[in-house]
Design brief:
By secondary structure, the protein is α+β, with helices and mostly antiparallel strands. The chain folds into three domains: 140 residues, Sandwich (Jelly Rolls), CATH 2.60.120; 113 residues, Immunoglobulin-like (Sandwich); 147 residues, TIM Barrel (Alpha-Beta Barrel). It has seven helices and 26 strands. The strands form six sheets. A five-stranded antiparallel sheet has the order 1-8-5-10-2. Helix 4 packs parallel to helix 5. The protein is globular.
């Protein structure tokens, strides 16, 4: 026992010492380890029943991540948290991911004494590909917790349980890596909708492999509307995109609009199949419609939207949040403006209730917003450009598939400059319809409204 304690103390001491040093610059031969994954927030399930019930515990694909304090210190590095997790054998033949949500401060992630990533954004959930870091049996996870190092986080976030929603999860090497989905009116003006579904398919093996992916879609009334599968041969250690574009009829009977009495949602199930057996299920719900910017106006179904806005962030739990959102809707509000990215269930609630959302990246640095010199306001400090882009990308990829999200904000009032220009340009390069907003643009070009 004494030897075990000494070894643990030495390992923690080495990690703490390493954390005090700046990260080495990446090289072509040895890139800095930042295996962060930006994608739609979802978890695969073994069976359709578990997927429809959202029963993660029954799926066998997830393990809760709840690290506990191992060492409490003073100073910027204020604690070392840890958790030992037993990785089953079957997981070692697949892809292993860690989702960290609500860590409550900046952190450095270590797995089996290997440094994985540094994350300064304490409010946006982050995912990491740990396939190359974990092994069968016991694995040691450490988080070195820091006081706010970036100075960009939104102020006064709602107190939620630490690491609520965090989990380790597994996917097979032939799987759905990500997807983009929308049920939108036909571009030619015909009276039906088009399901625009792009599945990013992964092959984690070293050689070419066939991967079969598919979907089905049910109307809000429970009727099966379409079903399709396709097989694609994916090169080893790479991904490919499979696109579906089926017509979905009678969609105008189920328009999704904020302020309406009901917010009808279609049920979509994504899945993979191998050797005649279904391997993973991903459940979704989407509404029919598209919000887009036309001649400087925000339009939906050919009408300009009149937004009645209210600032609202998720409360400590889902039930309380639902009550707040219902109260806002009863007051005539139709648009929710959070201060930073919210837990995924917050967007689910807005989808269900019929509330528009203007999502916002976790960037909030108002103190020096008027100092436009280089390095004055953080928005004009090129040294922070990567951090600004990381926060905007993390916000966008998580929520882009939610029907309720009608626009994206670059952040709270933080001045303007190089970093906000680059963030706007990137977001416009990936988002073709919904507007990008920034209230501190001050008449400059990096805002659409």
């Amino acid at each position: 026992m004494k030897r075990t304690i000494l070894l643990l103390t030495a390992a923690l001491g080495a990690a703490i010492a390493a954390a005090q040093q700046p990260a080495p610059a990446p090289t072509a031969a040895q890139p800095r380890p930042t295996d962060r994954v930006r994608r739609t927030e979802t978890v695969p399930y073994d069976t359709r029943h578990d997927a429809e019930a959202r029963d993660r515990a029954a799926s066998g694909h997830t393990i809760d991540f709840r690290p506990e304090v191992r060492v409490a210190t003073e100073g910027p590095l204020y604690a070392v948290l840890g958790q030992q997790i037993e990785i089953p054998y079957v997981w070692t033949d697949g892809c292993v991911y860690l989702r960290i949500e609500n860590p409550q401060s900046a952190y450095q992630l270590w797995v089996n004494d290997r440094r994985v990533a540094d994350v300064d954004d304490a409010l946006t959930p982050a995912e990491f590909d740990l396939t190359e870091y974990v092994r069968q049996g016991k694995n040691d996870f450490k988080l070195l917790m820091f006081d706010d190092r970036g100075g960009l986080d939104a102020r006064n976030p709602v107190a939620r349980a630490a690491f609520e929603g965090s989990c380790l999860y597994y996917q097979e090497k032939r799987s759905i890596a990500d997807f983009e989905i929308a049920l939108a009116p036909d571009s030619a003006g015909r009276d039906f909708g088009v399901l625009r579904l792009d599945l990013l398919v992964r092959n984690g093996y070293n050689y070419d492999e066939p991967v079969t992916v598919g979907y089905d879609i049910y109307s809000p009334q429970g009727k099966l509307l379409d079903f399709d599968m396709r097989e694609v041969v994916v090169a080893g250690r790479s991904v490919d995109t499979v696109r579906f574009r089926p017509y979905i009829y009678h969609t105008f009977d189920n328009k999704w609009e904020a302020g309406a009495k009901s917010a009808p949602l279609y049920k979509v199930m994504l899945f993979t199949r191998r050797d005649g057996a279904y391997r993973e299920y991903m459940p979704l719900r989407i509404g029919f419609g598209r919000t887009e910017l036309v001649d400087g106006k925000l339009m939906r179904f050919g009408r300009e939207l009149r937004l009645e806005k209210a600032v609202c962030n998720a409360a400590a739990d889902r039930k309380t949040t639902l009550g707040r959102l219902r109260a806002l809707k009863s007051q005539g509000k139709n648009t929710v403006c959070p201060d930073y990215p919210q837990p995924d269930w917050f967007y689910d609630l807005c989808d269900e209730l019929g509330l528009y959302v203007i999502d916002r990246a976790n960037i909030h640095a108002p103190e020096r917003r008027t100092d436009r010199s280089v390095g004055g306001t953080p928005a004009n400090d090129p040294a922070l450009a990567d951090e600004f882009l990381e926060r905007v990308k993390a916000m966008y990829y998580r929520s882009r598939n939610h029907t309720c999200v009608i626009a994206f904000a670059l952040g709270g009032p933080s001045g303007n400059g190089y970093n906000m220009y680059k963030a706007y340009e990137w977001l416009k390069s990936v988002e073709k319809h919904r507007p990008v907003l920034y209230e501190d643009a001050d008449g400059e070009w990096n805002t659409d409204l």
